[in-house]
Specification:
Helix content is 24%, strand content 28%. It is an alpha/beta fold. Strands 2, 3, 4, 7, 8, 16 and 17 form a seven-stranded mixed sheet that branches. A five-stranded mixed sheet has the order 1-15-14-13-5. A three-stranded mixed sheet has the order 6-11-12. Helix 2 packs parallel to helix 3 and helix 6 packs parallel to helix 8. The longest helix is centred in the last third of the chain and has 17 residues, at 288-304. The two termini are 34 Å apart.
Length: 308
């Protein structure tokens, strides 16, 4: 985890004089979390599991009519078994599955090709923020899954010297490319912005008190204007830990104790419950799943009201 001191930037909307005819698409969707909790591990044991169990969940959510599924797992190494095959098949059939990628000091697992990296990276214009998180390598899904899923995104946090959350980067850089956070990747999909070039808006600055210059001040996402700081962070209003989103136990979902219909039209974020990895925030300790949900909610809110 990288420690830095910064103030969160503000997320704001496009200028109020934007053409009224260019109404922003409705991208908001309810967010639900599915966790591998203590109840689940008592039933099936701790991770790692055979991946056909993950495949079963993807298929169930697909049939339920979810908007998108975000799996907070790296799936870095192929096992070459039936579980791998089942997960790849389920992800391909669904077409709305996203997974996490992570920073790495070098190549770990499958070394993605330039073609795959180019497809996974953001297309942008303008100079990016000066202090983006950078990495020599990425942890990515094993090759067959990487080619079957809809997209990938990172989950990174910035903390201050007191180890409290200070920012959630929207973008990171690796091998000369920019990659979105998992929340931003979901937002781009839900708002029909996949594959479109996003623009970093530049603002005038003065260096050393007298030297004029420019730096990235915002990322334009369609009509949504996300103001950024030098680290690529934008403001996120944090929900209260454990109370911002409906949370279901993985085992309850797969054993039919949760009605699949509750997931219709929802964005579902799935991951392990690991309190020891929670991040201390202004509202209390929060999981990575909740932080992804909070960042996505912030993007939803400003996309809904581009004149705010």
């Amino acid at each position: 985890m990288i420690t830095a001191i910064l103030l969160l930037s503000s997320l704001q909307a496009m200028a109020a004089d934007a053409p009224a005819a260019a109404a922003a698409p409705t991208v908001t969707a309810p967010i639900r979390l599915i966790v591998i909790d203590e109840k689940t591990t008592r039933t099936w044991g701790p991770l790692p599991w055979p991946r056909d169990r993950h495949a079963q969940l993807v298929s169930l959510l697909d049939r339920a009519g979810v908007r998108a599924i975000a799996l907070r797992f790296y799936y870095r190494d192929a096992r070459g078994d039936a579980g791998d095959n089942a997960l790849v098949a389920a992800a391909k059939k669904c077409g709305r599955v996203f997974t996490e990628i992570g920073k790495a000091p070098g190549v770990e697992g499958w070394n993605p090709t330039d073609t795959w990296l180019d497809a996974a990276a953001l297309k942008t214009t303008g100079k990016a923020p000066a202090k983006l998180f950078a990495s020599d390598g990425l942890q990515v899904p094993f090759e067959d899954l990487a080619r079957a899923i809809r997209g990938v995104g990172s989950i990174d946090v910035m903390v201050n010297r007191q180890k409290k959350l200070q920012g959630l980067p929207l973008v990171i850089t690796c091998r000369g490319r920019l990659f979105p956070s998992l929340a931003l990747r979901l937002f781009l999909y839900l708002s029909d912005l996949e594959g479109q070039a996003l623009a970093f808006e530049q603002g005038r600055i003065t260096r050393y008190g007298f030297l004029p210059g420019t730096e990235a001040r915002a990322l334009l996402l369609g009509r949504t204007h996300a103001s950024l700081d030098a680290y690529g962070c934008a403001l996120v209003n944090l929900t209260a830990p454990g109370r911002g989103y409906p949370v279901d136990s993985f085992v309850d979902v797969l054993t039919g104790k949760i009605r699949p219909s509750v997931y219709q039209g929802a964005v579902v974020i799935v991951g392990a419950q690991t309190p020891e990895l929670d991040v201390e925030t202004s509202t209390g300790p929060k999981s990575g799943l909740e932080l992804v949900a909070d960042q996505l909610t912030a993007l939803f809110r400003f996309a809904e009201d581009p004149g705010k």
